Automatic annotation (TrEMBL):
It comes from Albula glossodonta. It comes from the Eukaryota. This is Reverse transcriptase zinc-binding domain-containing protein.
Length: 332
């Protein structure tokens, strides 16, 4: 079933194409083949040469089929119907005087240049798929690469490229922060309509406008939290003060997380950023301030939960990564 505006429908028609609940395009092909057959019937009544009929196939019939084929590739039955209709139109009857392979050849090779419409439609669909794996919308590229790359690689048409990864299920914090990254300031109208922000200024009482850099670095609450992290003996050993910069907090360690130490630092930073975002939402939604002791406990609990998970997966690697023999040793 297809759900549209709260209603369950067996199919829905958009831009001349019928989308069925089973995901197939059989109904769309039946409709376009019916229209094509009517057009060929009207052109058959005119005294056309074979060359003229071939031009009709290229100029009138093929574009209509390519429009449907860009969305729904033709199945075996539809392909046979297209081929049969084309050659019956060329010869004017069901009796074919020459083989189809001969007519499909170019004129300089002894044929008449009849378009192989089924293969043209399939080639267009393949070209669109290859194009989607290389450029275009980031989500479309990731979707096409995930599902189409395995069989495209067998034909040498696609190469895996993980230099620009795409996450289908990012952390919920980053979903809310996506709007922040679109510009230097908050998109006030959009966030206000969703009750994510009451004003353009920082909800903690700062006079500056609220943006990504301010939330995680310049805000007074963020400054106190980062100061707490630096003053902690346990965290200062795992997260050196020299590694705490605005760029490393917002975008990660320079050069990527190539070592265990950098991966650990980035995990701690993301945990603190999560707490900062939770504090900001509590201020916006509930108009309440969170004291520094509560923030410290929240950060410690989240980090200890992560250490426990790592110890359960692989105790040896967890000890090497966190430098502790037990999760309780990690305290702020």
């Amino acid at each position: 079933m297809i759900y549209f505006e709260g209603k369950a429908l067996d199919n829905i028609k958009l831009l001349g194409l019928t989308f069925q609940s089973d995901g197939g395009g059989r109904k769309s092909w039946d409709q376009v083949l019916c229209r094509v057959q009517g057009k060929l019937g009207s052109w058959s009544a005119r005294p056309l040469t074979i060359t003229g009929k071939i031009l009709v196939l290229k100029a009138i019939v093929l574009p209509a089929l390519l429009y449907v084929g860009r969305v729904f590739p033709p199945d075996r039955a539809s392909g046979k119907t297209i081929t049969r209709m084309a050659f019956q139109f060329v010869w004017g009857s069901t009796f074919e005087k020459l083989s189809r392979a001969t007519l499909l050849k170019d004129e300089d090779k002894g044929g008449r240049g009849v378009p192989d419409m089924v293969n043209i439609i399939l080639a267009q669909g393949l070209a669109t798929l290859v194009q989607n794996t290389r450029k275009g919308d980031k989500a479309v590229c990731a979707f096409a690469r995930h599902y189409a790359t395995p069989f495209l690689r067998t034909m040498g048409l696609s190469v895996l490229d993980h230099r620009m990864p795409y996450s289908w299920d990012p952390p919920y914090v980053y979903r809310a922060l996506r709007a922040f990254a679109l510009g230097t300031g908050l998109p006030g109208a959009g966030l206000t309509s969703r009750h994510l922000a009451l004003t353009e200024n920082c909800p903690h009482g700062c006079t500056d406008s609220e943006h990504v850099h301010h939330v995680f670095w310049d805000c007074s609450v963020a400054r106190r939290v980062w100061g707490l992290v630096v003053s902690s003996v346990s965290l200062n050993r795992l997260l050196p003060r020299s590694s705490l910069t605005s760029d490393s907090v917002l975008y990660g360690p320079p050069g990527g997380c190539k070592t265990i130490e950098l991966q650990r630092q980035w995990r701690i930073i993301n945990t603190i950023k999560q707490v900062l975002w939770e504090t900001r939402n509590i201020k916006v939604y509930q108009q309440q301030n969170v004291d520094l002791v509560t923030l410290r406990r929240r950060i410690q609990n989240l980090l200890q939960d992560g250490v426990v998970v790592d110890f359960r997966k692989n105790e040896r690697l967890a000890k090497e990564k966190w430098g502790v023999d037990h999760w309780k040793e990690l305290s702020i």
